[in-house]
Task: structure prediction
Amino acid sequence: MSLIYQIALTLIKNVGAVTAKHLLSHFGTPEAIFAASKVQLAGVEGLSISKITAILQTNALKLAAEQLDLLQQHQIKVLFYTDEDYPQRLKECTDAPVLLYYKGTVNLNHPRIVSVVGSRNATPYGKMLCQQLVALLQHYDVLVVSGLAYGIDVTAHQQSLAYGIPTVGVLGHGLDRIYPATHHQVAKAMLQQGGLLSEYPLNTAAEKGNFPKRNRIVAGLADVVVVVEAAIKGGALITAGIANSYHREVYAFPGRTTDEYSQGCNFLIKTNRAGMINEARDLVYYMGWEAADTVSPVRKENLPSGLSGIEHVLINLLKTAPHSIDDLGLKADIQQGKLALHLLNLEMKGVLISLPGKIYQLI
Result:
């Protein structure tokens, strides 16, 4: 019964995380909050009449019972604010969610956690920086966190999977769905080598307003936030700003002043909102981390399912070095039109990236 009350506390309209924790501090348990009378609720300092009415008239317990059935079906774990498994770094943040939904294998209180964020419109430069960063981090016993969005987010997750690093995606919707849908295979792999986390109950759609809000979890979970590539406005800068307010370390890679998706990083560095790192080794130096081993980076073979024979041929060709589309066409003996479709499919599945001049390279 306690779990139903914990879930129900988060389903009361107009009662957010800060108010819920204030109520817990006053009453001790979620059960006591729901059992409280109007007079008792009125005795809580700062609790408005509208919130008292919302608590007394809520159908949150009924909704929580429905949620509990769905959670058991999907084998999703609930982490309440007072639980030992709740992320302790996040718990330090005043607006941390009272309850999290989690599915995965990794400990969210991992010794070292790095959140990697950046533009959804990542350039080849940004993807290269992300790949180099994650390749080095495999030696430092880290957990990589990001938001499973297009661009830098999914690149960070893919590279973590490739190098055997646990990685967690913080979602802006319920764990009964994946958005964007094209990242379903990546998310599936993450369940075996990390996990998926959300503050949103099941059946919550991927609404636009949810994503800026979830960025506080991306920031709060980590010891350090790394902004790989970002425009002057967007989610990455929101996350960096939240991390600053949480007194987390923030670092950013600089870029050319004329590049749109470097302007955000350059701004963070210029205004002392982020330290500058030119390469991945700078990050571990500033964090004072010692490597757990000295083995050279080795990628795991972690290809998506459902690839065609010609796509495997293209992958094997690209394992040696980047190739132009003309070179791939000659070596694979395939017409340009069909080749372009296969290359687009591999790019959508996160296997390769296209570089300027119609050059292709494995991620």
Notes: The radius of gyration is 23 Å.
